[in-house]
Amino acid sequence: MERKPRTKKQPEIISPVVVVAAALAEAEKTVVSIADLRMIPVSKIHLDPNQPREVYNKASIAELAESMIKNGFDVGFAIIVRPHPEIAGEFMAIVGHRRTLAAKEAKLSEIPCQMRTDLSEQGIYELQLLENEKRQDLTIMNRVRATQRGLDRGMTLERLAEVFTVSVATLQKDLELQSLSKDLHVHVDEGRISKDVARKLATSPLISESQQLWAWNNLLRDKRTSAAMVAALDAYLDKLAQKDLFADAKKAAADNGGLMKIRKASVALQKSIVEFEKRNYHTDPNVVSARKNELPTLKQLVASLERIAKG
Fold first, then answer.
1. Which residue of 6, 63, 144, 197 sits 20 to 30 Å from the alpha carbon of 77, by its own alpha carbon?
2. CB neighbours (10 Å) of residue 183?
């Protein structure tokens, strides 16, 4: 009897969605049996100052408080708490900060809670991230800060990517936004500045935080599209780059005996000329004209620097 060849069993590929679903199931331990709950005075429950969510919608909390006054606190959505790390006999919320705020506003005397004493600081933060991501409560910049705090607590980028259901590369790019001026965070969160424009502002070595704010107020605010903002910002960065090259070159030329600096300045200027001639992509005719007018001056400066270097 002929035997059929055995086929090697292929390893099961687990979708990231399945991984996150399992993690969410862990986070959903708020839905527990009555026997697992205890009633705790609302006055003894404190919010966690280190939890990911930073902003609460006051109208939404008022609406939830009104519902609690009419219908009571839904036992199926008990608060997860732990003993307060600093105040004996009191508690700190792990999951359910919004419900806690609403209960305080509704002036409830006590609410059902599930006590957890088995979680590490990292485990607590993971539950909080999962809860907020499930409800889509984090803004763009809030998530950037939450990602950094997760890393500070020992979470890996891979684990954080699972929680947020994004790629590691996306989180790495998002972390670059930490260098963005805090005054511009609200504009990113409210959609006036796209992530691409924000990242260009945050990562350019030519712009300080104060210059980022100046660029927004004077160059970008009136632009209607992200593409128009990028074009205006590119033109501004090119101008800054040329200004820095001129300053470096003049400083090098004035430095008696600094031939190495002069040579470096000369090479940098030559590269600048080549790059501009190669990628003359500006659509603004005034910008193109100004750049072309500067080319002869740049070339003369290069020639002068080379003569100094040879001498």
1. 144
2. 13
